[in-house]
Automatic annotation (TrEMBL):
Primary location group: membrane
TM helices/strands, residue ranges: 6-26, 47-68, 111-133, 145-174, 194-216, 228-252, 285-309
Name of the protein in its database record: Rhodopsin domain-containing protein
Regions of compositional bias (Low complexity) in chain numbering: 337-357
Compartments it resides in: Membrane
């Protein structure tokens, strides 16, 4: 995806944001009649999704500004002179104002945007994990312990990721101050922390999917409830796949970067390539992180949209959802009229009464299956 221009990258970002808002609108429409407390597992999950979408929008706006902002109005010759002051023609380059000011501003925005990006990824994990606590009372002791270990792993890895990103270059200003970026070898667009964080991200996602699989087996569900729960797990694996793809992209870029550093050390790199390696440009530093964040938010919204499909299937089956989302109870269709309109004593045959296949008040086991089927 490196062949995309800056404007092409911007078009890709906001197309995905539009898709995200469409999915969010469908989710809100599907759950418009549901009632649950803000502090319930579903309420906390919904808050996490709302916060992630807000932060993703902010990150995409910052990236757009960085891609087409004032930094890209600086001529390439100025960049070359800044990073290679010993060149014979460097003193002849003239540029109005100090070009380091817009560059440092972009570096600061990039640094803060990556922090928000990691917050988004881990909020999506919380949105998936916290919904499992709605069934914690029905779980076995071993499965409940696995659930607690999973949420603890999410919390610990989040702290680790933020600390690694912020403290890899010390002082922290080395992430955006021009002189320190040029003089500090370990902080020149280094992709090592991004690769480490991507590996941690993939491992935590796998742990979450494993916990979901264990919870479904522990509930001893059957039929459509099992299929519904496994579908939610399959949706969660989308985040794992996207995170894995981005991890591979970062590893490939890091290997190319290391070869470029070796060429610079051995004096075999051209001045143009030297500038590209030293400059922590937006495309290399982010590695399409915003694409991963948007797709993760879409995956978090998809389980709620399933309610629309269940209602559509119920209508076609002649059933009407009375309160989908709170109790899962179904209202049976009206009883058909009998062939005997007079009292039963005047009929030649005894009347037949219509009995719905689904009771108006479902038993507890049925309610539990419906609740699992509506995990959102």
């Amino acid at each position: 995806m490196q062949e995309l221009s800056n404007w092409g990258h911007v078009a890709l970002i906001w197309t995905l944001v539009l898709v995200l808002y469409i999915v969010l609108g469908l989710r809100m429409w599907a759950l418009r009649s549901t009632n649950y407390s803000v502090f319930s597992p579903r309420g906390i999950s919904t808050l996490c999704i709302a916060l992630t979408i807000t932060l993703v929008t902010a990150v995409c706006a910052a990236i757009t500004w960085s891609l087409v902002g004032p930094w890209h109005g600086i001529p390439e010759a100025v960049f070359t002179a800044l990073y290679n002051p010993d060149l014979p023609m460097s003193g002849n380059v003239v540029f109005q104002g100090d070009p380091r000011v817009p560059m440092e501003t972009v570096f600061k925005v990039n640094f803060a945007s990556m922090v928000l990006f990691y917050v988004v990824l881990w909020l999506v994990k919380v949105a998936f994990v916290v919904i499992y606590f709605e069934f914690s009372k029905e779980l076995s002791h071993r499965t409940r312990t696995l659930l607690y270990i999973t949420i603890a792993a999410v919390a610990v890895t989040f702290v680790f990721v933020i600390c690694l990103h912020c403290l890899w270059c010390l002082p922290m200003s080395a992430n955006w101050v021009f002189e320190e970026i040029v003089e500090t070898e370990t902080c020149r667009a280094n992709l090592a922390p991004s690769v480490i964080i991507s590996v941690v991200n993939v491992l935590v996602d796998i742990l979450i999917m494993g916990a979901g699989f264990s919870i479904v087996r522990s509930l001893n569900l059957g039929g459509s409830s099992v299929r519904s729960a496994y579908l939610i797990i399959a949706i969660g694996t989308l985040t794992v796949a996207v995170a894995f793809i981005r991890m591979v992209v970062l590893v490939v870029r890091m290997r190319k970067q290391n070869r470029a550093y070796d060429d610079i050390y051995n004096g075999m790199a051209s001045e143009k390539n030297r500038m590209k390696v030293y400059l922590p440009v937006q495309e290399s530093a982010f590695g399409y992180a915003e694409v991963e964040a948007i797709l993760a938010c879409v995956a978090a919204c998809l389980p709620g949209i399933r309610v629309l499909f269940r209602k559509h299937i119920a209508r076609r089956s002649g059933l009407t959802f009375k309160d989908c989302g709170s109790t899962g109870a179904l209202t049976p269709p009206a009883s058909p009229p009998t062939s005997c309109s007079s009292p039963p004593t005047s009929c030649s045959s005894p009347p037949t009464f219509y009995s719905p296949s689904i009771p108006a008040t479902p038993p507890p086991v049925y309610e539990q299956k419906v609740r699992v089927e509506e995990m959102v």
